[in-house]
Fold each of these.
Amino acid sequence: MREVRVRAPGKVNVQLSVGPTGQDGFHPLATVFQAVNLYETVTATLRDDDQISLTVSAIPALEHAVDAVPLDESNLAWRAAQTVRDQYGLTAGVDLHIHKGVPVAGGMAGGSADAAAALVACARLWDSGATRSELHEMAATLGSDVPFSLQGHTAVGIGRGTELSPAMTRGEYFWVFALQEDGLSTPAVFGEFDRLAAQGAAEVASPQLDPAIMQALSLGDAVALGKALTNDLQEAALSLQPRIQYALDAMHEAGALGAIVSGSGPTVAGLARSRQHALSIGAHLDRVNAAAVTIAAAGPVTGAVILDE
Ligand code: C5P
């Protein structure tokens, strides 16, 4: 039976600067992504008909969230398979199995990683001959974070976040992620951002990269990175899910170098001095009941890779 297995990473935005809504309805971004070693693994198995099917499992820490993953055309992995078929005029079918290691609806690009992995898996399974740049273009049509999951490492994203350039970075960064009971929808968080901006006195400025972030990364200075972490969506995520504040506070109590909402949330990312420190911050959060689940991880890591075929 022909089968291709691909894994793709989740991410944290160490900076997320958001501008006012553009004519296309999207917000222009200036963001710095770091891929972390929490992975989605997609196994694509050839079918002898033209159907696409989808099943999902998860690492133990995420098993509670498997039921929240749609198993139809609304799943980004499904749409990735369909995109490859449309692009190359193919009619082949595929069974897709997703094994989740990235929080669901958590602001860590789990769905985008599914799309990135499914694109690579289907392109290979069906011998499409897709080039890297063709994969990137298809990825950008599927979602703002999909090209980054394909590419991985550390990158600056502008526009919708799909125009990527690699960032200079040194060393390894240790994170602890605080998951919340309920997810947040990305459009809802951007909508809340707009609502809060409309209430505020100041106008939303154009998105800007912070030199302090770029310098900290290029020096491998985790202390400076921790101080410089910023996310313009944090206030909107907090407004929709005020409980997030407990996780931010508990991260600081436990001595995190910095703490921030990841992407559109609600996951809170804490930067630690070491893997051991990340585990001890996680233990503190568990003790004070500041998160549904905590997971330690590290970055940066590579983007989508074929594991076997
Ligand atoms: O691209 P993605 O599917 O992740 O975007 C989901 C939604 O989030 C968009 O439809 C849009 O409402 C909002 N969004 C935005 N500006 C961005 C990225 C996403 O307003 N740069």
Amino acid sequence: MNTVTVKIRPEAEKFTAEEDAALRRAGSIIQSGGLVAFPTETVYGLGGDALNRESARKIYAAKGRPSDNPLIVHICRLEDLEKIACRIPEEAFHIADAFWPGPLTMILHKTALVPSETTGGLDTVAVRFPSDRIAGRLIRYSGGFVAAPSANRSGRPSPTYAKYVLQDMDGRIDMIIDGGQVGIGLESTILDLTVSPPQILRPGYVTGEMLRKVLKEVDTDVTILGDGDGDGQAPRAPGMKYRHYAPAGELTVVEGSSGAVLAYINRQTAEEEKAGERTGILCSGENLCRYRADVIKCVGSRGDDEGIARHLFAVLREFDDEGVTKIYAEAFDTAGLGQAIMNRLLKAAGHRIVKL
Ligand code: TXA
Ligand code: MG
């Protein structure tokens, strides 16, 4: 299959006639059962018709994803929610009011309109109403319901640029819409509203504190920042149980005081270079010039969580591009957006963490 890439200017207020025609073409590809990758405000998604079981099968095949790992259905109008979800609690509408369109996914009971292939056999459905204008227009031209996991091969970091979608999906999908770098860089927060109190299954840009301003009570899946096996408990979002976001090199997260982390990592990389490894360090700006390794990448300044979130996945992929075999990463604070950052980093490391 030949994968076509079309560019759409992300910052422009209006689509040109050409851009609009490209989005219409993309929409008709999805409506006729094909796959199109597109930008959202979180990460690039791999879109297919959410109401077509054949499209869901194609998405799993293109990603190399286990078919028990359900897809998120993306909508572009609030009134479409009741076509795919039923027994919707009042709280869901308050959440929609506060955070939609935006980087938040709700788990609700599904209607018969949604095929079980899309939901990985579950009788619940994940629904998201993205704020990205390219995504919104594409969803509309696709018939209103687009199933879209992150547009990476299963296990790889989610793509934050179209070039990384192409790296993983060239020849496997019909079209890629290149809308430049995404804004947030980490996938949406997932909130399960089929349980009481509602529970966060995946941390993201919308934090527990933000949700608690709208809901009286919000729980968090205990496995989110656990040691990887959830003390014997499986994460409730099926996708959270898989090793994920992983670069090809072996990644270790190092936690401790800034000085201890610096000394430990420099000692490790020196030893490993002697043993013939190609070493990499993922760090914040503060200590950047005091580290020694073959490849040193700064993800942002400590405290600038939004910057770190935006760069994290691209930096993980850059280590691969440079053939790094051993990577050490500084740990980050887990307050606010930091929880989502550490959740992704620890998963990328297969929960290999050194606490000093
Ligand atoms: O920001 C995002 O959410 C991106 C963009 C493209 O919208 N999408 C995304 O999709 O991250 P994906 O497929 O990579 O991750 C979806 C997660 C998986 O962990 C999956 O197991 C979980 O959502 N999920 C989907 N449906 C679910 C359900 N009914 N119950 C529990 N978890 C569900
Ligand atoms: Mg994903």
Amino acid sequence: MKPPRIGIGTDLHRLVPGRPCILGGQTLDCAVGPEGHSDGDALLHALCDALLGAAGMDDLGTLFRDSDPRWKDAQSTLFLEETLRLVRQAGMEPVSVDIVIHCDRPRIGPHRATLRQSLAEALDLDLSRVNLKGKSLESTNHGPETIEVIAVAILSED
Ligand code: MG
């Protein structure tokens, strides 16, 4: 077994009225949702970039160009599936991930358990190896309302 690999990914989206609030592949009940070429799922975008970064591969924006009409309004679960396929094809496997979500809306606490569970299933990991937490912006966001996600992933390699 080779030494483990670590990767970090971040993503930032504006939150606007009239868009579904999609996070971690789930649609949350919220008056605002992420603007974006795809579904704007900042959690899955950051997670994919962490996995790709750990694998030494191109980032999400290079693999899924936002100028490509194939990805217009694409579900980001598709990006995660493709990312995992590439990672596994290269002989690597997720070992653990940790995620921080910065936003004032939606509140993450009530959704934390279901988000963890669905990510653990998508990554084929034990629940204890997938963690996430929400943090408020503490009144520091004076521009447009945003959601920002930071993800760290560790991969094992054959
Ligand atoms: Mg994004």
Amino acid sequence: MMDKRNAIKIIKEKIKAASNLVILSGAGISAESGIPTFRGEDGLWKKYRAEELASPKAFSSNPELVWEWYNWRRELIRSKKPNQAHISCVDLEKKFKDKFTIITQNVDGLHQQAGNNNVIELHGNIWKTRCTNCGDIKENKSTLGNLPKCSICNGLLRPHIVWFGEALDEELLYKAYKVLLSTDIVIVVGTSGIVYPAAQFAGTAKDSGAFVIEIDIKETPQSSLVDVSVRGKAGEILPLIVESNNK
Ligand code: OAD
């Protein structure tokens, strides 16, 4: 593996020469804000794995348990702020303007809170609810009970989040592929790269000519497939890449 200094030098040169850039982010980019990742050491909630709770089956058999988990996460996220990694993404958007896109698997909204505008939230947003009866979607930041009801039809609400076994929003997927197929650079940050379809995005972009960079504290299944993989915290590495790289 290339040493870190060299890798960062190459990445900075690539960014300088690029016309457009995509960030593909996962839970690791919010880890330094104090939000546990899904598959990290503190990733379990009680004894459950994300896959056991984030599913239509789990919700139909025990909606209270699923809401308890989401309410725990909502209250946790409410108390957290964007970190240096999110702020670096804002700097990159300032530089690339409308040629910059974040495709995130995160539902915490911290990219937008930091100030990014062009964010594709592939898996939804934890502050949005959807009625299981009438389909009404609302942003709702209030503290919810474990069986929240729709204000229109009194149906049971669910988090407006894409669960395991559910299809992603087609329009968002289309937008994501459109930028991935035309971008010069993809920076994959803080994702284990095992949940599809996001797991194949870096490969898709690379096949169509993008230079693909990975930033993660650990090696992932994608590490050997990307052009440069840097081991380190997102909040430390991203600022190094962005610093003094103003176009
Ligand atoms: P994971 O928890 O699977 O992976 C987090 C990644 O971030 C791992 O590769 C860690 O090594 C890395 N990481 C941790 N701290 C970091 C730091 N400070 N800097 C850089 N990297 C760090 O999370 P995701 O890949 O986002 O879906 O998970 C994908 C999807 O699975 C999520 O969107 C969620 C989950 O189930 C749904 O809920 C639908």
